[in-house]
Amino acid sequence: MLKNFLSLFIQSPCPLCRRRTGDWLCSYCLNQLLSYKHRRPHQLWSGALPRFIWGYYDGRLKQIIAALKFEKRPELGLELGLLLGEAWLQAPLEKLRPLVVPIPLHPDKLKERGFNQAELLAQGFCRLTRYPLSPQGLLRVKNTAALFALDPQARRETLKDSLTLGPSLAKTNQPILLLDDILTTGATAEEAQKVLKRNGKQVLGIAALASSLTLRP
Length: 217
Ligand SMILES: [Zn+2]
Fold this sequence. Notes:
The chain has 217 residues and is of the alpha/beta class. It is built from eight helices and eight strands; from the N terminus they run αββαβααβααβαββαβ.
């Protein structure tokens, strides 16, 4: 009775549909979100840069990433990172206990947004997997705006020398798992891999919450 009474007070609007809920998403939106999850998130885990993709970038998944970034709801990043971590642990992959390095934001962007969404996802991911996290493993030294408008070649040109190794990675020999919110073409992840490899680091691949590179689930 008391618990029910108290739950009236701790309920808050669902970030996607505004129904009141005691959870981070209402059950309706959570089910819709889960319908974008891939059954085989490791389907692109091979090749030069293996990619682990939680879900298809559309619908509720697209909306929740927008809420996280543009409505500035950092708590959603942690929850989504837990979902990504859960899928990772369940996938039939060889797990080498990597060091997790989020794709960084440029300091100007970071100042504007107040947080790096990839780092929040990585925090949730690492909380579940218990992998070590190096939030400053890579630094973004060039502000690259509006990549979506560019063709692949122009993207690569723009991204060139945009990332550099952070001091926290200087001494580690641990294999690295990159982590990002959205994998669009993978050009940023490839640039990150290039920088890490140039510095003698082993890159296992990238884990991303969403991408439209794969087919709809
Ligand atoms: Zn909802």
